[in-house]
Design brief:
The protein has helices at 3-56, 80-86, 91-97, 109-118, 122-125, and strands spanning 71-75, 104-108. By secondary structure, the chain is mostly helical. Helix 1 (3-56) packs across helix 3. The longest helix has 54 residues, at 3-56. The chain starts with a helix and ends with a helix.
Length: 128
């Protein structure tokens, strides 16, 4: 048997013998544990978002908006919804992992939504 199997078997036996103690310890610290997980996850997501926005320029490529709360990721060739689902919502993590793909850009919500509706950003419609 592999070492991995030995550790798994030991873990199961240990849990069965100490089940009540383990559960009581978890329940006593549950709020702290969950809060720590929530905070560390939020901190990680914020850092990932900052890394992605830093790489792609921190401003809308169409209108130049630079207020971070208005900015979003845009897939130049479409497919953003499919990408979001494929990454289980971890878009920033996936972009970093994939080496910052070239078919991604930063757009403000207005430009992104306008492109979604008409295929062309409202700022660009008059310029065509």
């Amino acid at each position: 048997m592999s070492k991995s199997g030995d550790y798994q078997r030991y873990g199961k036996v240990y849990y069965q013998r100490h089940r009540e103690e383990i559960r009581a310890r978890y329940q006593a610290n549950r709020v702290k544990i969950l809060e720590r997980m929530r905070v560390s996850g939020a901190t990680l997501r914020k850092a990932e978002k900052e890394t992605v926005f830093e790489h792609y320029g921190h401003r809308c490529v169409c209108c130049g908006e630079d207020v971070e709360e208005f900015l979003t990721i845009d897939h130049v060739n479409g497919g953003g919804r499919r990408f979001f689902r494929a990454t289980n919502g971890h878009v920033y993590r996936a972009l970093i992992r994939d080496g910052f793909p070239r078919d991604i850009q930063i757009l403000c919500m207005n430009c992104n939504f306008g492109r979604r509706l008409t295929g062309v950003c409202p700022h660009q419609q008059g310029k065509l």
